[in-house]
Write a structure and sequence with these properties.
The complex is a heterodimer of chains A (about 525) and B (about 200).
Chain A lengths: L6 H21 L16 H12 L4 H16 L4 H27 L7 H28 L8 H27 L1 H12 L1 H20 L4 H4 L4 H32 L8 H71 L5 H30 L6 E3 L1 H16 L4 E7 L6 E3 L1 H20 L7 E10 L3 E8 L27 H10 L3 E3 L6 E8 L5
Parallel strand pairs in A: 2-4
Antiparallel strand pairs in A: 1-3, 4-5, 5-7, 6-7
Chain B lengths: L6 E5 L3 H13 L3 E5 L2 H7 L6 E6 L7 H10 L6 E5 L4 H9 L4 E4 L4 H29 L3 H11 L4 H8 L3 H15 L4 H16 L1
Parallel strand pairs in B: 1-2, 1-3, 3-4, 4-5
Helix pairs in contact in B: 6-8, 6-9, 7-8
Classes of the chains: A alpha+beta (about 525), B alpha/beta (about 200).
């Protein structure tokens, strides 16, 4: 499980890692037990673990050496060189094992799902408990710690390491992942983020100073801004917020104005806060991704539905064209000059070419209406359009059209082309259902328009055909194709258009096949 | 050996496509019959129709594949060619499960359509041949069928006579009758017919 790495890169990484680790160790060497690195906040293991997790275990010797040097520089080698060497090996080895397990379990996937987050938390919390036990045990073995102080020392080490890693490692993982980093930066630039930071800082001031007393009593208040930030910003927000809270706690600890507080207990609360934030964030992200995926597949489905319909519409005239062409060739090959027959065929070919061109023209219209432009359209104009469309579709079939609307119907506030497309689709559906009947004569389409409330018009398109087949609600689903439609536009697309207007398209239950299209109209008193 | 001229039955709802196909097939000397939908086809359908159906997949009412299934349920073996402007895998599967000759996507190559129709016709020709043969076999008496069976094994009249306990002369008479009924001219053709009939039965 090691990644091949050039020596130059290795040395360069080490030259960045070691000073950072030592600086973090120095900065977080607060409130220790005895002269040892047993403090309630240890962010530096996160640095070591993330480095080994991403870069590979060949960094372990550097980590061991750095821990040794840090102990020497920050704490002047407490307990002598031999004990220091031993504890460095325990810590470095322990962190390497944690990094290795995380690498095996998570790979380079990072913390994207709640399952990955659970694995991460379990390994970190369990691993630091064991490393802490070994570390404290070694110090006790070297007679550096009293028997009585062991449990407290172990607890302090464990909480310090666990909180340090839980807070810092996700931040480091995010910072090293290009996409995540871009997300973090985008989040930082949002105006809302500034407000969130202000609220979070204010809440911390309240908890640690403003309300007075033990900060543990009011710590729960911090969950409110955290939840707000995690819900709005997802994992990135949660990472940032928990890091800020941790820095605030440390700053409070170092400050002279903030009253003293029990650090270990507060750090345990920070751990709880961090877990809550990370889980909330990862779930918000997961939901966001699922929604995005759904939206994408709906878009694709609509595109696929349209492509199928367009293929059908264009292929019919093309098929006829090529058959006529084949016939013309056969006639020419037969010798002689069958002029009148050829002329008739060529006439038909021209008609088919026009038909294909018409499909393409309608297609262009459809794409031109990609964005919805609302304008007032008088009811009379829409009624005329309905008559025109119905005549086009019905053609020579024996199907009647009844069109009724209130005389005082206000102008509709719609995109004319889009609404015409929807109406064309609904009328084509009705015509198709009626002509599929064995006894098509006597078929009639009825279009009613009436005012609904202050600012809505309901248009009902119905027919006296057999009603819908089973599965009424599936009518609107893309890919649930019944028959070829005149426009080649699925009901799914029609409904999308209606909804883009702030209206709706429904097929209410009933024996009759009826579509109810609700559209906005201009308000009149 | 065709009893009736084979016909191409075109079932297509698009008037232009139907018209152009009829014109093209007519110029290529096919007999054609045109239907706007499956229901019109079924209303006119008779059991003695022979030829090949060219049906659009998407039709108002029953689809081309549903029409094919309906005909199969009526024990019709008419070969089917499905044409469509766009198809999905399950539909194609259903068509081939009902032994479609071909599945052509519009706009198709006309040589392809002609080749498919020819395949359908030759399948139909074999089917008609089989039907005629079994009709002829059905006209044989029990004894004549026994004689035919033994003759097919290459036995001579005397050997057959001994096996069946009749005189060789009677066997000769039976053979002549059989050849008359089956419409074959000599013993060689008789044996070929018998072997072909047997191998079909075994299948």
């Amino acid at each position: 499980m090691t990644t091949a790495i050039s020596p130059v890169r290795y040395i360069r990484d080490a030259a960045v890692f070691a000073p950072c680790y030592i600086a973090l160790d120095w900065a977080s060497y607060i409130d220790p037990v005895g002269p040892f690195n047993i403090t309630p906040w240890n962010p530096q293991p996160a640095l070591a673990i993330v480095w080994m997790l991403l870069g590979g275990l060949q960094h372990t010797p550097i980590v061991l050496a750095t821990i040794f040097v840090a102990d020497l520089l920050v704490r002047s080698a407490p307990g002598g060189y031999f004990v220091m060497l031993l504890t460095s090996v325990i810590l470095g080895g322990g962190y390497a094992v944690i990094a290795w397990i995380l690498r095996e379990l998570l790979g380079h996937a990072g913390l994207r799902s709640s399952r990955q987050l659970t694995l991460f938390c379990a390994v970190v919390v369990g691993g630091t408990a064991l490393v802490g036990g070994a570390f404290i045990g070694a110090l006790r073995g070297a007679a550096q710690l009293d028997e009585s102080s062991l449990p407290a020392a172990w607890l302090r080490f464990w909480i310090g390491d666990a909180v340090g890693i839980l807070v810092t490692a996700p931040l480091l993982l995010a910072a090293t992942d290009g996409e995540r980093r871009a997300g973090l930066l985008a989040l930082a630039r949002r105006p809302e983020t500034a407000l969130q930071v202000v609220v979070l800082l204010a809440t911390m001031w309240l908890v640690f100073q403003g309300l007075g007393g033990d900060p543990r009593d009011h710590f729960y208040l911090l969950f409110l801004p955290l939840i707000w930030i995690a819900v709005r910003g997802g994992m990135n927000g949660a990472i940032g917020a928990t890091a800020l809270v941790q820095l605030g706690v440390v700053a409070g600890l170092r400050s002279d104005t903030v009253p003293a507080f029990p650090v270990v207990e507060v750090q345990a609360l920070v751990a709880g806060l961090t877990l809550t934030g990370l889980y909330l964030g990862v779930m918000v992200d997961e939901r966001e991704r699922a929604t995005e995926g759904l939206r994408e597949s709906l878009r694709l489905a609509a595109a696929g539905e349209m492509a199928g319909a367009i293929a059908h519409e264009v292929n019919q005239p093309l098929t006829a064209l090529s058959s006529y062409g084949q016939s013309a060739l056969a006639l020419l090959g037969g010798g002689g000059m069958p002029q009148p027959q050829l002329a008739a065929i060529i006439q038909k070919m021209l008609r088919e070419a026009n038909r294909a061109a018409e499909v393409v023209r309608r297609l262009r219209e459809l794409f031109r209406t990609g964005t919805t432009r609302l304008e007032p359209v008088p009811a009379e104009e829409l009624a005329a359009a309905i008559r025109r469309i119905a005549q086009q579709i019905i053609g020579t079939r024996a199907i009647g059209l009844q069109l009724r609307y209130d005389a005082n119907l206000p102008p509709l506030y719609v995109d004319r082309l889009q609404v015409e497309l929807v109406l064309r689709n609904l009328i084509a559906n009705a015509v198709e259902a009626l002509s599929a009947q064995p006894n098509a004569a006597g078929g009639a389409i009825e279009v009613l328009a009436r005012r609904e409330g202050d600012d809505r018009v309901r248009i009902v398109v119905g027919d006296n055909g057999p009603g819908f087949p089973a599965g009424r609600e599936r009518l609107f689903e893309p890919f649930v194709s019944g028959k070829p439609t005149g426009m080649g536009l699925g009901l799914a697309v029609s409904r999308a258009i209606a909804e883009a207007h702030g209206g709706s398209l429904e097929a209410p239950p009933g024996a009759r096949a009826e579509f109810h299209l609700v559209l906005p109209c201009a308000q009149t008193r | 050996m065709r009893a009736d001229p084979l016909t191409v039955y075109v079932v297509e709802d698009d008037a232009s496509v139907r018209d152009s196909l009829a014109l093209m097939l007519g110029l290529a000397n096919y007999r054609t019959a045109l239907f706007p939908d499956a229901e019109a086809f079924l209303a006119a359908y008779r059991d003695d129709w022979t030829g090949c159906v060219v049906a659009d997949l998407r039709l108002p009412g029953k689809s081309g594949v549903e029409l094919q299934a309906e005909l199969r349920a009526r024990k019709s073996a008419l070969p089917f060619i499905i044409i469509t402007a766009h198809a999905d895998v399950p539909t194609v599967r259903a068509a081939f499960h009902a032994e479609a000759v071909d599945f052509l996507e519009k706009p198709f190559d006309h040589a392809q359509l002609r080749a498919a129709i020819e395949r359908g016709f030759s399948r139909e020709g074999r089917r008609l041949q089989r039907a005629a043969d079994s009709a002829k076999l059905g006209a044989l008496t029990e004894r004549e069928r026994e004689v035919l069976e033994h003759a097919a094994k290459g036995l001579h009249a005397k050997e057959i006579a001994a096996l069946l306990g009749i005189s060789p002369r009677t066997v000769e008479v039976h053979k002549t009758r059989i050849m008359e009924k089956l419409g074959v001219r000599n013993i060689g053709e008789l044996v070929r017919f018998a072997v072909a009939a047997q191998s079909r039965e075994e299948r």
